[in-house]
Amino acid sequence: MRLVRRDAPSALRSVAAVSVACVIALGLASLIFLALGRNPLEAYRAMVVGAFGSWYGLSESLVRMVPLGLCALGIALAARMGLWNIGAEGQLVAGAIAATWVALFLRPPDWSMVWLVALAAACAGALWATLASVLRAWIGVSEILSTLMLNYVAQACLEYLVYGPWKGPDRFPYTVYFPQSAWLPLWPGTRIHPGLVALVVLAVLLWVLLKTTRLGFEIRLTGDSPSASDYAGVPARSNIVLVMAISGALAGLAGMFEVTGLEHRLPHAVAPGFGYTAIIVAWLARRHMLGCLLVALVFGGLIVGGEDVQITLRIPQGAVGVLQGLLFVSVLGAEVFEHHEVRWGRR
Question: Which pLDDT score, from 0 to 100, does residue 233 have?
Answer without folding.
Answer: 76
